[in-house]
Every structure is written in C-alpha cells, then in structure tokens.
Predict the 3D structure of the following.
Amino acid sequence: MRKLLLMLVTLGLLLPLSAQANYVQRKDVQAFIDKMVKDHDFDRAVLNQWVAKAKRLDGVLEAIAKPAEKTLTWKQYRPIFLKQKRIDQGKEFIQKNRALLERAEKETGVPKNIIAAIIGVETYYGRHKGKTSVFDSLMTLGFDYPPRSKFFRSELEHFLLLAREVDIEVSSIKGSYAGAMGMPQFISSSYRAYAVDFDGDGKRDLWDSNADVIGSVANYFKKHGWQRGGDVVQSARVKQSTKEATRTKLKPHTSIADFRHQGVLTNKAYADDVMATLVTLEGVDGIEHWLGLKNFYVITRYNHSALYAMAVYQLSLELEK
Ligand SMILES: [Ca+2]
C-alpha cells in the first residue's frame, strides 16, 4: 500500500501539473479575498468567481526562476537589445513622437532617447506587450511561488485596484509572465503610483496612448531621482582587473576621490564628492569597467539589473546617431 502511494506520488510529479489550481478552496486565497473585501470594499462573490477561474501557469513559474539578467553575461545580453532592428525602429519611434518626447524631456529632464530606449527594450516600442493573463500570473506567483509570494500578493492587490480604477475587466488584461503591462511594462503598483495622463483625455492608458506611455516613463524616472543633465555611466580603468561581478552593487556607494585612491580612474573629471558604483562586465573584447553614477542607479529602479541599465543606456546612444 505504501509502495503504491509512493508510486502515485512519483507519477503525479512526473505528469504535467494541472492548470486548474482550485485556488478558491485554499485558505491563503480566502484570506486574501477577506482582505480585499475589508480594506477595499470588493464584492466577495465577484472575487470568488474570478479566483475560481484562475489558472496556475507553470510556464510562469519556470520563467521567474531564470530571468535573462541573472543567467546571461554582458556579452550574451547586449546583442539581444543592441540589434539593428531595435535601433532602426527606435529612430522611427522618436521621429513619430518627437513633440511628446521633447515635452516630457523638458518637464522632467529625462532625455528623449532614454525614454525611447526603455520602451524599445521593454516591448520593441509597443509591439510586444505580452500575452499572459496578468490575473493568472499574479495568482500563480502570489500563491505558488513562496520565495516572493508577499511581493506578488501585494501586486495582485494593486492589480485588482488598478483594474477598478482604469475600468478594465480583470480577465482581459494581458502582460508579461511577471505581471508587467502595456508599452512600458509597468507592474500594477508602478502603474498606480507613476502613470500619468499626458494627453489629457482623463485616462492613464499605458496600452494604446503613446503620450501617456512617454509621460509615464519620464515621470517614473523623475520620481526616482533622475538628475537633469547628469551622466549615466563613464568608462573606467582599474589597476587590477577582476572578472564580471555576479552581483554589482547598483547604488553609488563610493566617492570619485575614494575610487581614485583605489586606482579606479575615468577620462572625464568629476567633483571629488560625486558618488559612483563600479560595474565590471564581461564584454566581447574582455572585461569592461564602468563607473555607474546616480542616473545609472535610477535606470536600475526600472529593472534591478546592471546589465539592463547598460543596455538601455547604450541603446539610447545608438538612437542619437
Ligand atoms: Ca491619457
């Protein structure tokens, strides 16, 4: 008997996991529903209906375990984003949206090429906005991905509030596997906190309004401390070369003067008290060293990765040419 049970369990693990997750019967899900009813006045019966239809997306669980930023080196990561096609389409995007981009730059100090590069890296300028049900992905990550369940349950809460605020049916909203939405791939809490109505039609629409998307990306950076006219990164020389750091400290933590004493030098002169972080990458031609400045850190507030910030910055330079 025990042997049989064991065999069934093993078989169960080998078979593809069922997509029907029976979330509605789970205590932790019901506790979440209680909270939504109590804190935000949601209708319990409606929430139960949505949750009863929610699917566990096993592909989402696989994807979250290995994001490109964590598994690729710079020399593998860079060509994904610095493709000629992405550069050409970026120039086209800037040409078509020049007035909006210039207005956003004037108001926030965030260069139009940085705004365009973000949208290019995220969704190919709105061409790939994601096809995963955001509700299903947030249910999956919130209730079946223990390492970050707290974060994703909070995003799920924001998502339900957002759907109510922008008046869109919960089941119809699509996005990335991690619940990022629209042309700039804002997660729900960011959408609620940083999206702006830049075309003045009374709605914050990050799916179809280029104006709202451009204004919102610029606002996101402004709110995270973008320095008007400030540098992003500067190429650096170091006394002793090391290999690509698996985890770069993203936040500037050492002054330019201290770096100089450690033998980390740049061609451009900065004031002694400017803070920076050392970024060490494995490029096509070997190890590269960079000093990341405040605006580098601000780009990583969009995606907590040095590779991501480097790709956005370098794409933005290509869009200028
Ligand atoms: Ca709008």
